[in-house]
Amino acid sequence: MNQHGLAKSAILAASIAVLAGCSSTMKDDMATDTAATDTATTTTTTAADSSTSTAGVSENGLTAEQIQARQDAAFAADTLFFFDYDQASIKAEARAALQAHAAYLSANADAMVRLEGHADERGTRAYNVSLGERRANAVKRYLIVQGASSAQVETVSYGEERPLSLSQTEEGFARNRRVELIYK
């Protein structure tokens, strides 16, 4: 399974966990959990889950806490959302992940997220700051419509000032047209 498929599977698992009423807190070190990509062991546990024994260990040998930590790490890893050239429209492939973030925010009223809008270097500095702001605000509106509180979400635009890629190719430019979700 490719990396994109793994990310989708992990986000789906995180969404199910959030919707099932599981609550957790985001930790800064979650993104370093390399085991997050192992979707074969990423499952959700509920009261009706028959794969969990009475000792709290699933059939694959993981505790509910370990499973939740892997789901949280996969959730935290999907925090970059990319945009087409000169656009602030959310891509269809980003919606499921953004819905998972909105569900997390909705379930955790004390959680806060900063949306950092970015643009590639084409265009004037002022235009790129404005474009980054439009992108961040588009993601903010989407999160709010999906259940997050506006008090939980702040936006900032860096325009072209913080590129992910210094490449002057279309691929490099595409990496720089993004909104990053930074949980506080």
In percent, how helical is the residue content? 25-40%
Low-confidence stretches: 1-10, 12-55
Let me know the CATH homologous superfamily of the largest domain.
OmpA-like domain
The residue-averaged pLDDT reads 75
Helix count from the secondary structure assignment: 5
SSE string, helix = H, strand = E?
HHEHEHEHE
Spatial extent as radius of gyration: 18 Å
Name of the CATH class of the largest domain: Alpha Beta
> What overall form do the CA principal axes indicate?
globular
What is the CATH architecture term of the largest domain? 2-Layer Sandwich
The secondary-structure class comes to alpha+beta
Indicate the proportion of strand residues.
5-15%
Distance, first to last CA: 32 Å
The overall number of domains is 2
Instruction: Could you tell me the CATH topology label of the largest domain.
Output: 60s Ribosomal Protein L30, Chain: A
Can you list the strand order of the major beta sheet? 1-4-2-3
Largest sheet: 4 strands, mixed
By DSSP, the count of extended strands is 4
Describe the structure.
This protein is α+β, with helices and mostly antiparallel strands. It has five helices and four strands; from the N terminus they run ααβαβαβαβ. A four-stranded mixed beta sheet has the order 1-4-2-3.
Brief overview:
The protein has 184 residues and is of the alpha+beta class. It is built from five helices and four strands; from the N terminus they run ααβαβαβαβ. Helix 1 crosses helix 2 and helix 3 crosses helix 4.
List keywords for this structure.
184 residues; alpha+beta; 60s Ribosomal Protein L30, Chain: A; 2 domains; four-stranded mixed β-sheet; 39% helix; 12% strand; disordered N terminus
